[in-house]
Amino acid sequence: MHLLPYLLSPHPGHAAWLLQDNRGLRQGDPLSPYLFALVMEYFTCMMDTTVHSKRIVPLFRLVRPVVSHLIYADDLLVLLQPSMRGMRALSDIMEEFGRLSGLQLNREKSRVYFSSRCTQQEERAFALGVDRGELPVKYLGVPLTVNYAREQDCHSLVDFAQRRVEGWQAAGLSFGGRIELVRSVIAGITMFWLQSIQIPTATIRKVEAICADFIWRGGMHAISWDQLCRPQEEGGVGLRPLHAVRKAACVKMAWRFIKGGSLWAEWVANRYLRRTNFWACRIDNNFSVTFKAILRCLPVLQTAICMTMKDGTTTDLWLDPWLGSRSLLELLGGQLDREAGRGLTCSRIIRDGVWRPEGYPYTAQLAEEIRLITIDASQHEDSWSWAGPGTGGGSGLFCFRSCYDLVRTHHDRTEEVDFIWGRGLSEKCNYVHIDFYGVD
C-alpha cells in the first residue's frame, strides 16, 4: 500500500490526473476497479483513524472486529452512533476525501437512517448534510430493515415475478419452455433473496402461485405444485419448492459460519457467542432473525459434516460434533459435569499424533471409535468437511445441490415415471406427455 499516498496526493499530476484528466481511464477499462479499490482503501484508513480518535463511535463499538463502514462496488454504507460530533466528523471526512481523490459525495442520492429511539433526527441529518430516509430501504436488491422482512417489504420480489411472466408469451411456449423460464429466471432471483434475508412464507406462496399460473397458462392446474417440485425420478419436473430452498440457504449460512474466514462469520461469533459454544447455543430473543434461522438448522447441518482432525486445538472436546457427526456430550448423556468439561479441546486426548482417551468416562466401544479417527499431523488446524448426500469424490467442498437434497421431502418412485421419462425420447418430447394433461 505504499502507492496510496502517491495516488491520493493533492499535488498536481498525481490522483487528480489519474481520476479527472481527459486522458484518464475510459469507462469499462479493466484497470478502473483496481484504481477505485486503491482509492477507497485510503477512505478506510481515514475512517479507522477517526474511529481510533473516538470522533466517530461505531454502531456496535463493543463487538470485534469493529465495523464502521462497508463498501460494495460504488455503494458506501457507514454504521455509526448518531451523535452530533460523529455526524460532523463524517461530513469532514467526506469533504476531505473528495478534495484528495475527486470522488465527491452525491448528496442527492445519499440518505441517513435513524433508529426509532433516536431524537433530533432532522438536526443530526442537517449536520451530516444529507436528507433523512425511512426504513426499510432497498440495498443491493433486497430490503434492509431493522428487525425482519415483512410481507409488505418484499413486494418488489412479487412484482418482479409478475412482470417477468407478463412479459413472456405463455401461449407461444411449450410446457418445457415455461418450466425452463421459471427454473432459470424466477428461481434465480429468488435464490439471491433467500440467501440474503429470511423471506416471509406469505411472499413465497405468492411467488409460487405466479409461477404455477404461468406454467399452466392461467388454466386448470392438472398437476399440483408440490408434485411439479419433485425430481424427475420421483414424478416431477425438477423444480424446487421455495420453502425447501429457504431452509437449504440457512444450512449454507450455517456452513459458512463454522468454516469461518470471513468478516461476517467473525463478527457474528463475537456478537452472539461470547461465552458459549456454537453447537450448544440456544435461541435468544435478542438474536437476529437470520441467526435464529441458522441455529434451527444445526441438527440438519450436523448430519452432513465431518471433522478433519489435525492437532485438536480448535475443536471443543465435549460440544463440537466431531465424533461421527455427534458430540461427545451427546454420546455420554448425563455422565459429564458440564462445568468441569468447559473449554477443553480434543488436544487433551491427543499425544504425538495418537489418540490417548484414557482417564475420561468413555465406554470401551467409544474409546475404540475415537482411536479409529484419522489424525493428520501434517497440518495445525482442524477443519470441517462437507459430507452431505450426492457429494462425489470426497472433496469435502460444500455443494448446494447436496444441501437441498438433504432438506427436501423425498418421495417414492411412481409408476408414471417410466411412462413419461423412460421412453428413450428427448426431454423436450417427454414434456409433451405432461402438457397433454393441461390442455384446456
From TrEMBL:
SUPFAM superfamilies noted in UniProt: DNA/RNA polymerases
Bilayer-spanning residue ranges: none
Domain Reverse transcriptase: 1-144
Record InterPro entries: DNA/RNA_pol_sf (IPR043502), RT_dom (IPR000477)
Lineage: superkingdom: Eukaryota
Pfam families xref list: RVT_1
PANTHER family named in the record: REVERSE TRANSCRIPTASE ZINC-BINDING DOMAIN-CONTAINING PROTEIN, REVERSE TRANSCRIPTASE ZINC-BINDING DOMAIN-CONTAINING PROTEIN-RELATED-RELATED
UniProt protein name: Reverse transcriptase domain-containing protein
Organism, as annotated: Iris pallida
